[in-house]
Amino acid sequence: MPPRRLDPRTILVQSLRGAPSLVFGIPVVLAWSRGEGIALGSLLIGMSVLVAIALISAWLRWYTFTYQILPGQIVIARGLIKRTRRSIPAERIQDVSIKQGPLSRVIGIAEVRIETGGGEADEGRLVSVSLPEAHRLREVIRSIRVGGTGAEASSEDGTAEAEALLFQMGMPRLLFSGVFNFSLVWIAGIFGALQYLEQVLGYGWDRWREVVGVAEQAIQSQLNGMVLLSVAGFAVALGVLAGVTRTVLQNFGFTLTYDDARFRYRRGLLTRSEVVVAKRQIQLGLVERGAVSGGLGWSALKVQTLGGGDQVSGRQELAPFARSHELAPIIALAGLPPFDRSHLKAVSGWHILRGLIGMVVLPTAILLVVSLFYPIAALLLVAMPVMLGVALLRRRRHRYGLAATSLQVTRGVLVRREWTVPYGNVQSVTVRRGPFQRLVGIATVRIDTAGGSGINGPRVHDIEDARAEALVRDLIQRVEALRTSTDTDPA
Amino acid sequence: MAFEPVPLQPLERGYLRVLRIRSALGWLIALAVAVAVDVFLHWRTDISPGFVVGAVGLFGVVSIIFLVPRRWRRWGYAFTDRELHVAYGWFTRVYTVVPVSRVQHIDVSQGPIERSANVATLILHTAGTENSLVALSGISRQRAEDIRDVIRSRISDAPW
């Protein structure tokens, strides 16, 4: 195949995308005109010059960017003065992801990303090709990809049908899941403001009472309550609406399919994306249960992958809102063992005390001091009973254990998380002991994995030194045993 | 130091000198700032000159003589042919274990001060995110190279 260029419409889209940055040029123009304004003619000339520059540079970028599919590799060349030629070997290609933003959907082009295990996200990105070309590319790349089963050969445009459908979200479930997506923080904030308002209003009503008279006291207190209730209702409705909107935009038409050791999910209302997660890229599995939805039996399955994906956290959601029995087959296909609670061990009782100090005592003290200067800060004390509950429950909800092929950790009071880290994906183990932890003889064990950020990682907090020692020893031993016994280690 | 799954080795004595020189360089910069502050204070108020410089200098001397050796003593490492253990930290103790099989590549580096003390820094890169590189400073160059060679042979033995 000869080198190809991107779709010519890229020029238009790219220069349109650059248009908002022209706003920064306005002060320059104003400064240049010394505040006297510019004649319409010269303004038009100036604008057309700018537009021309934008178009020409977009055209140059389009003209110099080529991609070429060769036997065994894909070559992407770019740059006018400094030419860059990047070749991606076929065996490193996992699959092809296709993404369409709102504008792209209108004019029928798509962004194609050639997924490789690791590296930068932009590594194999073709900003826009026509949609048929995107599908053709995927077919061609799949056919040259070595390591795929030869039996695949789905040359006709029927890939989606050939794949096994694992999980799908219909509209009712989508809307239902959105209801649980409201932000608790937001609600808390609104209620905090409400309480403040009540004080203000209360003072106002007192004044009114003096003016209007005692007779209407009953009506007023009722009115007050009604105002309060309606504001509260409004806050909840707003939170729910925001949650539903966000969920629908993000997960509209969510479909997860599986074929040839690769998951593929499609989702999105305005920005439609199609993302591929190769099984061997999966570093760990994470099941999340929300505070309310989890209690009703709903959970989300995420996997952490090495490179790729369109989610910032490095975690991909394979099923955003599903029942446990729906998740089980997906987890099995991902090569992860099921989460086995029966083998898990509890952490030290000091975990509660540390939570009490860090989440209740210290914040309360700080808030009290701050509220001496800014009384509004005292409103945040409302959150303290919740924090107290979280602190008291956190030990019960935090357990860990070494299963046959994976480390399993569960943690979290409001949002409950269950991590499954196959031993082959443990990169290093770190034990941290702060001053208080050293004093009482406990330690926190952090397990480092590839591809994810540290927050919400599979950490084991506050276990006794001896147990931490045993955990580290056993864990490392298993990592190494796996290393020497098998030769199909997915690094 | 209650947490010690394997017996740890201290760092080279020579590294203490490296740490002291580095610390001294840092304090020299602080001292230069202190001189400027001193001059400024003396110019604007009637604080006698040498007040800030004296405090900073005293702190620096105390730090170089007493605190740096303390920090040095907190470091420990062990290489067991299968994993590297590194421990450090005074306020928060940190103990990291890197299985050799997880190492992506290895660097041995030696700065000018380190070279004069004949110590080197061994840096292990893993695919992880939080600990993508684990650095062990203050071991002899020979030791660093030995560890590197063992790890390298183990990585190239790898069945893939």
From TrEMBL, chain B:
Key words, A-Z:
Membrane, Transmembrane, Transmembrane helix
Q: What Pfam families does the database record attribute to this sequence?
A: bPH_2
- Residue ranges of the TM segments: 21-41, 47-68
UniProt keyword annotation of Transmembrane present: yes
Every copy of the YdbS-like PH domain together lies at 72-150
Enumerate the InterPro entries for this protein.
YdbS-like_PH
Mind telling me what this protein is named? Answer: YdbS-like PH domain-containing protein
UniProt source species = Brevundimonas halotolerans
Q: What is the lineage of its organism?
A: Bacteria, Pseudomonadati, Pseudomonadota, Alphaproteobacteria, Caulobacterales
